[in-house]
Design brief:
The protein is mainly α and about 200 residues long. Helices cover about 75% and strands about 0% of the residues. It has nine helices and no strands. α8 runs antiparallel to α9. It is elongated, with a radius of gyration of 19 Å. The mean pLDDT is about 95.
């Protein structure tokens, strides 16, 4: 029986997912073939199917990995001072805006969620956990830091998430500048969060 090298396995898996992300971003899920992923990853179809039996499995793995990084950030921001934690979380949520794959992958996620209930549940679970964390930070900012929130913390957290989602959907627009858009969105969020009372 052949021994599997975990590091080599993880590297190859990551290489496949990177190739798939590039294919999905350009061609969408329906326009991407497993042969195209194999070509881009420099592997044979047998290797691909060893890691991922179906294209749907690839989509799920790609986004699960990304959402796992969100889960890793949540405890860190909750341990921080509320204002610092909030700033870290907003920065994390906006971090991929400059990634050239973002527009295509955002479209991929929307399309897949509309036809794949299991995938939609993956996204919903992440959205709800992020909402809980944002709400908790905003409540602490209001209660302990005297911030004058424009809306109740849970409603404001939801609006912030919707604004971030909108930024990702805009990322493919002509003339989109991630640095400018992120700065503008941060200013909008700052207005909604208010500031500490004097």
């Amino acid at each position: 029986m052949r021994t599997v090298n975990p590091e080599q396995h993880a590297r190859k898996r990551a290489k496949i997912l990177q190739a798939a992300a590039e294919e999905f971003a350009v061609n969408g899920v329906d326009g991407t073939s497993t042969a195209g992923i194999c070509r881009r990853a420099g592997i044979g179809s047998g290797t691909l199917f060893h890691y991922f039996p179906t294209k749907r499995d690839i989509v799920h793995a790609l986004f699960r990995d990304d959402l796992a990084r969100n889960a890793e950030v949540h405890p860190r921001v909750l341990r921080a001072d509320a204002e610092q934690g909030f700033d870290l979380l907003v920065g994390h949520l906006l971090a991929e805006l400059a990634n050239p794959l973002t527009p295509g992958l955002a479209a991929t996620a929307v399309l897949q969620a509309n036809r794949d209930p299991e995938f939609a549940e993956i996204l919903t679970t992440d959205t709800e956990r992020t909402h809980e964390v944002l709400t908790g930070l905003l409540r602490r900012m209001a209660d302990d830091g005297g911030y004058r929130l424009a809306l109740p913390a849970d409603r404001l957290a939801r609006w912030i998430q919707k604004l971030v989602d909108a930024a990702y959907l805009m990322a493919g627009d002509p003339g989109f500048d991630a640095e400018v858009e992120s700065a503008e969105l941060r200013r909008v969020i700052a207005r909604l969060v208010g500031g500490p009372s004097a």
